[in-house]
Amino acid sequence: MDLSNAETRHVKKDGAEYLEFTAFDKYMDKITAVFAIKGENDLRYFTEDGKENLENLCRVISVDPNKLIKITKQAHGDNVAVVKDLSEVAEADGLVTNKKGITLSTRVADCISVLIYDPVQNAIADVHSGWRGTLKRIAPKAVLKMQQEYGTNPADVVCVLCPSIGLDHFEVDDDVKDLFVEEFGERYMYGLNGKTYIDAARHLTESLVEIGVKLQNVHDAGLCTVCNKELLHSYRGIGSKEPCYHNAALICLK
Ligand SMILES: [Zn+2]
């Protein structure tokens, strides 16, 4: 099976399986950015028994596994941590840096990881945006943090929304629906057979555009984790059972 489409390239190499994004192709000499998936071998990354997989992935994509920032607790909040060295990041949902050689990572199983690159100031961000994070505008807050720290102009950044739960599967109850309507109106809310579905990627895109990111610079991988649960870790895809493992969104300045 192959998940390649206009926005993504499915790579299988030396035991690692991951997606690359065509939006970043022209910056290949500046950044490494991948979304590691479970693939046909059910690869795990952020578990004790997945340690080797993560290290192997790092080797394959030529980043230093000892310089990988893993957030201890992704908390569905809006805290964006500025990474200056290899210090532990205890609790955050967004990471930004302009340090070369440090790999930022987020882990997701239906939520949206957003990888962001500013080619002018040469700075990066990696964001975990679930529905709570999307409501709290964590992704635009990461861009604004880049602006504050590195002088980033939002109009310059290129954003990739990694695979996440799609509109076709993101059914929500009234309480979640009401929160989205309050924040964004009903624009990307769809009703079918008495159920409500939300296009979270579109909400997230809109919140980035609101702060000056160019619409044509926001790229959606266009892959639903639930539809592709054979190859992508998906919480809802496995029936919301524990434990659920995670895909890994990695980005590093060369
Ligand atoms: Zn789907």
At a glance:
The protein has 254 residues and is of the alpha+beta class.
In terms of topology, how is this protein built?
Elements: E1 8-13, E2 16-21, E3 31-36, H1 51-60, E4 68-69, E5 71-73, E6 80-82, E7 89-91, E8 94-97, E9 103-108, E10 112-118, E11 123-129, H2 131-135, H3 138-150, E12 158-161, E13 171-172, H4 174-184, E14 189-192, E15 195-198, H5 200-210, E16 218-220, E17 247-253
Parallel strand pairs: 4-9, 5-7, 6-8, 12-16
Antiparallel strand pairs: 1-2, 2-3, 3-17, 8-11, 9-17, 10-11, 10-12, 13-15, 14-15
Residues 166, 168-169, 224, 226-227 line the site of zinc ion.
Features:
alpha+beta; 5 helices; CNF1/YfiH-like putative cysteine hydrolases; 254 residues; binds zinc ion; six-stranded mixed β-sheet
Are any ligands bound, and if so which?
A: zinc ion
Tell me the domain tally: 1
CATH homology-level superfamily: CNF1/YfiH-like putative cysteine hydrolases
Termini separation comes to 31 Å
* CATH structural fold name: CNF1/YfiH-like putative cysteine hydrolases
Radius of gyration: 17 Å
Which CATH class applies here?
Alpha Beta
Descriptive notes:
It is a single chain. By secondary structure, the protein is α+β, with helices and mostly antiparallel strands. It has five helices and 17 strands. It has a single domain, classed as 4-Layer Sandwich (CNF1/YfiH-like putative cysteine hydrolases). It has helices spanning 51-60, 131-135, 138-150, 174-184, 200-210, and strands spanning 8-13, 16-21, 31-36, 68-69, 71-73, 80-82, 89-91, 94-97, 103-108, 112-118, 123-129, 158-161, 171-172, 189-192, 195-198, 218-220, 247-253. The mean pLDDT is 95. Zinc ion binds at residues 166, 168-169, 224, 226-227.
